[in-house]
Design goal:
The structure holds two protein chains of two kinds.
Chain A: H1 2-30, H2 38-48, E1 55-61, E2 67-73, H3 79-96, H4 106-114, E3 120-123, H5 126-134, E4 138-142, E5 148-151, H6 181-191, E6 197-204, E7 210-217, H7 223-235, H8 244-251, E8 263-265, H9 268-277, E9 280-284, E10 290-293, H10 311-340, H11 348-358, H12 365-385, H13 388-408, H14 414-427, H15 434-469, E11 471-472, E12 475-476
Antiparallel strand pairs in A: 1-2, 2-4, 3-5, 4-5, 6-7, 7-9, 8-10, 9-10, 11-12
Helix pairs in contact in A: 6-9, 10-14, 10-15, 12-13, 12-14, 12-15
Chain B: H1 8-23, H2 36-60, H3 66-74, H4 76-108, H5 115-131, H6 134-158, H7 177-191, H8 210-237, H9 239-244, H10 248-254, H11 262-291, H12 298-314, H13 319-354
Classes of the chains: A alpha+beta, B mainly alpha.
Chain lengths: ~525, ~350
């Protein structure tokens, strides 16, 4: 295994070297200026974008002296805006009047006093022009000038803002993020109206040039974590970023752990809450999933609704989720250990029931459990992958028929079907850990079959040691329980009402002492 | 010195877990029969003096490990030689704890499994923990050791109906001598072993004076809880069974009416024994790395543990020999390491301080 890791590292190193070589050539390209003649520009662009049928060149001759070239990708720009706000004023201006004295450059004239559009910039090199064409802007070249104008007339793309399918809530805002980065940022700015909400844009992916945005609230977020995020993002050298999942895997602290050390969400209110706690978010263009770091274990059993509801219910729900987490990991293995190793622990009457239901089953309880668990995982996966209309009904019917039929045919015992069903239900209670529990369940089953309760206990200890080892951007993963951070226990298993959550999470700022000025979330109001 | 810090509560839980390590299955004061509680009190006082001595040494030599203190006081060569003796003692001691653990599991739950398999898996787990650093060990103990309290409370409350509250009478039936012997055993068996923490104390993150408070607090809590357990054992089992039984807590747990909570003792043992052995392995590996000038103790952890596992399998023929050794030989074997050398260290560091 070590050998493999080493070779992997070498591959990574080699690929980064190649990338740096590419970067050098890019830098040389950057220096290239825009030719003065638009014919040269056109031939240059045609060269770069050869075989790109959707690129549109439009040459306009305003008068004998002024020629313009507009370049954009078809479908990418809002044509109406381009015509009404950019082209018509230019044409009107230059066809009616004679060009004024040469005191001003035409590009400046257009930029400052003719075009209605707000978003207009200048550029002087081909590389930047090409990048902007690719990201959906229209480029305006003027004959006889070495500057081009970038006109922001990007047409709104993609789907509308709607409720996310993956994170449904009964109470609270229903808006979810969409694929468009700017829409997402707007959604967030709508919620946090604060100039300290910072958005740092960077570009990732050698081929895809995906826009990635580091978002945090200055003064609340820990500067060290923000810096660490910047550093880790800068280290990513990859061809493509198609989803924030790519970034997630690169910036995770432990790249091989089963447990997620980077969180994601597509709900605006949840993200706003995380930012206000002092976390850092990473938006990625093209995906509704926004990453948040640091992500701690306790966050997996927190839901955004918890803060909108009464604290008693929340506490109950949190404990329920913890129980579900334990059950979904341990129940099948505890059953197997009990039947195979420790029958005397089972109360006598229950033991008779178990024995009766296991009568005539040809498999050991371990084989039975593995069979049923694998069947369930297959049903689940099929339900996800199938076209939605048939998927859901088919998976439910499949489960019922299979469960019933398996019992009737004497392949699985009734009790095992019940246990696997409970496990399955519980595994959906804590969505961020579904994948971790899915694998851990099998490992626990194997341990139970090997050493009974002792095996399970050993493995539980091992898992917890692993959790204690994990860190997310320098923050201990198991905080606030270990290391014990007493002020943060208010939002852990037992929650207090929102008016009593006076301080922001302290675990995210390990350096700051108790007297930290920015740590207050609200002023304490003393009622008369 | 690696820059790892342990908080007060972590140290407290480590000490509690350490003290409950082997006492979760063996009862060092059982030889005093119905005066066992008296032995706990007397031995507890004696043991508290020992712990006070170790803490005083740590306070007089702040942020120095046992090896460094030994070298400071005895010079390089003699100091290293004594340190090597200490390493042997710690490794031997962790081997005995491994053996306690394995012997218990094999006798009680898994009679057909070879002991070395169980000890080996346990050792692999602890190597993983110790290799992750003392910080991970202490943070895991923060999660697990509170369970010990819960288990003790569950077991005692569920046995409350079977208590015979007169079981500790008559007082001093066999004279004071067996009581004193048992008290001495108790002072050296869990309490005196705290000297191992001289390797851990330098990681403490608060002011060194808080160490006294934490050590005192944890020792008092331990003695009170243990006193409670001993009374409970006496009340439930009576003096003869207490004297004869090999694994008293296990018998206690199996006597709980209408249910079977034996696995709780397994958990109890994994937590206590785990903390105890991982502290020992850490101390031995760290001391070894300091004696031989090896930069990272982690390189030695696997080796030390392997040695300790092998030793644990070789060291006794059977369970009875183990119990005999723990009661008859171990207390005297410990005298130089737990009492004599620390006393010399304390006096010489005190003199160095006052000069």
């Amino acid at each position: 295994m070590f050998w493999k890791i080493k070779t992997l590292k070498n591959i990574v190193r080699r690929s980064t070297n190649n990338n740096s070589a590419n970067n050098n050539s890019d830098n040389q390209e950057k220096a290239e200026p825009i030719p003065k003649s638009i014919n040269a520009v056109k031939s240059k662009l045609e060269d770069i974008f050869s075989e790109c049928g959707d690129l549109i060149f439009r040459e306009i001759v305003c008068n004998s002296k002024l020629k313009l070239l507009v370049v954009y990708f078809d479908g990418f720009v809002d044509k109406r805006a381009l015509n009404q706000d950019v082209m018509r004023p230019i044409l009107d201006h230059f066809s009616n009047e004679k060009p004024q004295g040469k005191s001003k450059r035409i590009s400046e004239l257009i930029k400052e006093s003719i075009v209605n559009n707000n978003d207009i910039k200048e550029t002087e090199n081909i590389k930047q022009a090409v990048d902007n064409i690719l990201s959906g802007e229209a480029l305006l070249f003027i004959d006889g000038e070495d500057k081009a104008l970038i006109v922001g007339v990007k047409a709104p793309q993609g789907r509308q803002v709607e409720e996310p399918d993956t994170e449904v809530s009964l109470r609270g805002p229903r808006e979810g993020f969409v694929e468009n980065l700017l829409t997402n940022i707007t959604l967030l700015r709508k919620r946090i109206k604060n100039p300290n909400l910072k958005m740092e844009m960077i570009e990732l992916g050698e081929q895809t040039k995906t826009d990635v945005c580091i978002c945090y609230i200055k003064g609340i977020a820990n500067e060290q974590i923000v810096q660490e995020v910047r550093d880790r993002l800068k280290k990513i050298k990859i061809d493509a970023i198609l989803d924030s999942g790519y970034i997630e895997q690169f910036i995770s602290d432990s790249r091989i752990s089963l447990f997620p050390t980077v969180g994601n969400s597509e709900k605006c209110d949840k993200l706003a809450g995380k930012l206000l706690e002092g976390r850092v978010a990473i938006f990625c263009d093209g995906t509704p999933y926004v990453i948040t770091v640091p992500h701690l274990l306790i966050e997996t059993i927190q839901a955004s609704e918890d803060y909108y509801d009464h604290a008693f219910f929340t506490t109950f729900l949190r404990l329920l989720r913890l129980l579900a987490l334990l059950v979904s990991n341990l129940l099948p293995s505890l059953y197997v250990a009990m039947v195979a190793f420790h029958p005397k622990i089972i109360p006598f009457k229950l033991m008779i029931t178990i024995a009766a239901s296991r009568e005539g089953i040809p498999f050991s309880s371990f084989t039975e459990a593995i069979l049923m668990t694998v069947t369930f995982e297959m049903l689940r996966e099929a339900g996800v992958r199938m076209p939605r209309p048939i998927g859901q009904s088919l998976s439910i019917v499949g489960a019922i028929v299979l469960g019933e039929a398996a019992v009737a045919a004497g392949i699985a015992s009734n009790l095992m079907v019940i246990i696997i069903s409970i496990t399955a239900i519980c595994s959906f209670v804590v969505p961020p850990l579904i994948r971790a529990t899915m694998l851990l369940r099998f490992i626990f089953l194997a341990a139970a079959n090997f050493l009974g309760f002792l095996g399970i206990a050993f493995l539980v200890v091992a898992v917890f040691i692993h959790l204690c080892r994990l860190r997310s951007f320098g923050i201990p993963y198991t905080a606030p329980f270990s290391p014990l951070t007493a002020p943060d226990l208010k939002d852990s298993l037992v929650t207090v009402p929102i008016w009593a959550m006076i301080t922001r999470p302290r675990v995210l700022r390990p350096e700051s002492g108790d007297a930290e000025a920015g740590i207050k979330r609200q002023e304490v109001q003393i009622k008369q | 010195m690696e820059n790892v810090k342990i908080s007060g509560i972590q140290l407290f839980l480590l000490i509690i877990g350490f003290l409950f390590g082997s006492t979760s299955i063996l009862t060092p004061v059982a030889s005093a029969k119905n005066d066992a509680w008296l032995a706990v009190i007397i031995g507890g006082l004696g043991g508290a003096c020992l712990v006070w001595m170790y803490v005083a040494i740590a306070v007089l030599n702040p942020s120095k490990t046992l090896v460094e203190i030994l070298r400071n006081r005895f010079g390089k060569y003699l100091g290293n030689a004594i340190a090597i003796l200490y390493i042997w003692y710690i490794v031997h001691f962790s081997a005995l704890t491994f053996r306690n653990f394995g012997e218990f599991i094999v006798t009680v739950t898994y009679p057909e499994t070879p002991m070395v398999v169980i000890i080996g898996i346990f050792a692999a787990l602890l190597v993983y923990a110790v290799n992750s650093g003392i910080e991970v060990v202490s943070r895991s103990s923060e999660l697990f050791v509170p369970l010990l309290f819960v288990i003790i409370i569950i077991i005692s409350l569920s046995l409350i109906t079977t208590h015979d509250f007169t079981a500790f009478l008559p007082l001093l039936e066999n004279g004071i001598k067996p009581v004193l012997h048992a008290a001495f055993e108790f002072a050296t068996f869990p309490l005196g072993e705290i000297f191992v923490f001289l390797m851990v104390f330098p990681h403490f993150n608060k002011k060194i004076n808080n160490l006294k408070k934490i050590a005192a607090f944890s020792v008092i809590i331990f003695i009170l809880l243990y006193l409670w357990s001993i009374f409970e054992y006496l009340f439930v089992l009576g003096k003869d069974l207490l004297y004869r039984a090999n694994f008293v807590p296990h018998i206690i747990a199996s006597l709980i009416p209408n249910s079977n909570l034996e696995p709780l003792i397994d958990i109890y043992l994994i937590i206590g024994g785990g903390v105890k052995i991982s502290i020992c392995i850490y101390a031995a590996a760290k001391a070894l790395s300091q004696v031989f000038g090896i930069s990272d103790y982690r390189k030695l952890v696997t080796a030390v543990t392997t040695f300790s596992v092998v030793l644990s399998v070789w060291v006794y023929e059977n369970l009875l020999e183990m119990v005999e050794f723990a009661q008859k030989v171990w207390p005297y074997y410990s005298i130089p390491f737990q009492i004599v050398i620390p006393l010399i260290l304390l006096l010489s560091s005190y003199r160095a301080k006052t000069d």
